[in-house]
Amino acid sequence: MFSGGKVIILDEPTAALTVEDRKQLFDFMRRLKADGVTFIFISHYNDEILDICDAVSVLRDGVLAGGSEDVGSLTSAQLSELVLGRGLVLFQRERRSFAEDAPAVQLRDIVGPSVRVPALDLRPGEVVGFTGLPGAGAKELARCIFGLTPVQSGTIRFADGTETQKLPAHPRDAFETGIAFLSDDRRRDGAIGQMSIGANISLSSLASVARSGFLSKDAELKLSDRYFAAMGIKAASAAVAVDTLSGGNQQKVCLGRVLATGPRLLILDEPTRGIDVGVKQDVLRIVDELSRTGVAVIIVSTDTDEITRAVDRVCIFENGTIARELTGSEITNERLRGLEPG
Amino acid sequence: MSRTMTVAAKTESPKSAPATANEGGRSVLGWVLHNVVWIWLIALVVIFGLFNQFFFTVNNMQNIMVQATVLGMLGLAVALPLLVAEIDLSLPANLGFSSAIGAMAYSDWGLPWFPGMLVGVGVATFIGFFNGLCITKLKMVSLIQTLSMMIILQGALLALTQGRTITNLSDGYVWIGQATISGWPIMPFVFVIALVGVGILLSNTVFGRRVYAVGGNPVASNSAGIRVDRVKILTYTLAGFLAGCAGFLLASWQMAITSNQGSSYLLYAIAAPIIGGVSVFGGRGNVVGVLGGVLLLTIIQVGLAIISVPSFYVGIIGGVMIFIAVAIDAIRVRYFS
Question: What is the DSSP letter of B56?
């Protein structure tokens, strides 16, 4: 990796790293730093900046918004305030125990490529976190439930009297059963860039705004305007093309699209990765409000901070299956990072 | 902390006053790039008219409309696979082959002309459907798959006709290519109906919305619950159907089917939608643009003939036109989207 530069620029170097790899990278950087190498470290993770950097410059909307020569004197909240240009209230869900409730969704006997989960129950209004190292099965299970990855076996049953059915074979079937999914890959698998915000929002629920195949402009406008407002998307109107929006606002458009289908089970894969810390709180708040209406939510995330703030229960994946579960006060950053025995 | 921490006083966004003049210039240029077809079209009509007064006559207008019909039907057909970010090169060959099948169903198998014609259009539709299957289910590359289909169909037409020209078409079959209402040929009305039909399909239906979504981003469309393969197969099938109709119209108008019927349309049929703003990258374009591209190419062909440009130069001018159109498409996507 190191070819002898005097100044090394690292742009979001930890995005694809495990906690262990990140530690190794930081140790390596500290050794080179001691030899007089200068680093420019670009990141949107506050804890990384506070951990590895000596000085910080904050850019906002293309201008230098502020900075500090002495990172040690900054707190995470002060840094967030510089990033956002306003005070930030970090979202924290009020966790409660769902152990006594009857399940809203029952998943059984799921066997797919590198996934084997015999049983998983979700209660109405419960937010469950899926976490684990890449390839451990958290993301893979989510994609199986939504029908993006074909499974060998697996059933799903909703509590409202409907029969046990096979997992959907295609996302279209999933939406029709009441399962919605938001992908982690916003660049390849996000919004349709050249289409308007409104057209993106209605894209997964076109049947509900059409009569015998013909779109009803009024019905579509009503639906898209409703979620355009509810998501708090920053744009002049819902007619604006999505590719003019920031990453965070594009994510809100996608979230609006899946919520417009009226899901009973919502699956979010890394819903806040790579979006600014302010929009992140908005997204977590929207999910929290939705769960209060009785929708069961799965959040797949490797961001331990997000997990601790947003969920009631965590499933930790190892070797394609759920190895451990944490609930209530057991869910802490330290325990999730494996620093404390679980 | 206050000693070490600096906060920039200026908080407003950097893109304010100084940029506005530049923005205005950009939007004018963007408008010109988006409407370049219609601007060229008007300019060329004026130029050709100045060279030769005959260009402005009703007779010549009718001629342009009739000539634009077959190219227009074919241009609409080509536009559909382009909108889902694929391509179908076999459509002009499909036009020729299917019309020969339709004519032979009448002359050799003894069917009345109308069912014979339907057999031809049906064959064209099935070939489109088959192309769609190959591209989606077998994941064949559309450029190469349809190129090979083009060669197959051209060869099949030659084998079918044994190099001869089919001329024994029934009166009913050639009627639509010859009929007039108070002096005006009725063939262009078929094109207008197809244009309006495809226009409504693309902009007012669920299917049309899905076509644009699939062309814009197939992976995201799949996750949004669109059956991408089904949408692609349907666009290819519809393109085949339109090519079949174009084949019937061309044979009816010329009252003959040659052993290489349709192949001369290949370049123009692909160029017309692209000139009209249908992006080769998928997801962008509409039928009004296709109409503009079709009229532009037809007017160039007819105009160059009327002002007696030697036929040796018609080819190079057509080629340059296509080159410019693709370049403009690239510039527009690169800088204005």
Answer: G
With a CB cutoff of 8 Å and minimum separation 6, the contacts of A195 are A203, A241, A242, B212, B213, B216, B283
- Residue B1 counted as domain residue: no
pLDDT in tens, A22-36: 888 999 999 998 988
Strands B5-7 and B180-181: unpaired
CATH superfamily of this structure's domain A7-84: P-loop containing nucleotide triphosphate hydrolases (3.40.50.300)
CATH of A105-336, one of 3.40.50.300, 3.90.1150.10, 1.20.58.480, 2.130.10.10: 3.40.50.300
Best to test chain A binding among B5, B210, B278 (most A CBs inside 10 Å) = B5
Q: pLDDT tens, A262-319?
A: 999 999 999 988 787 788 899 999 999 999 999 999 999 988 889 999 999 999 999 9
> What digits encode the pLDDT tens for the residues A110-127?
999 999 999 999 999 999
Q: Tell me if B204 and A199 make a contact (CB, 8 A cut-off).
A: no
Report, in angstroms and rounded to the nearest whole number, the Rg of chain A calculated over CA atoms.
Answer: 21
For every residue of A67-110, DSSP letters joined together read: EES-GGG--HHHHHHHHHTS------------TTSPPSEEEEEE
ipTM of model: 0.83
Q: Which residue in this structure is represented by tokens 């008007």?
A: B42
Q: What is the pTM of this model?
A: 0.86
Find the residue in A nearest to B200 (Cα).
A214
Partners of residue B199 in chain A, C-beta under 8 Å: none
Q: Which of A192, A196, A216 is the best residue to mutate to test the B interface, defined by the most B CB atoms within 10 Å of its own CB?
A: A192
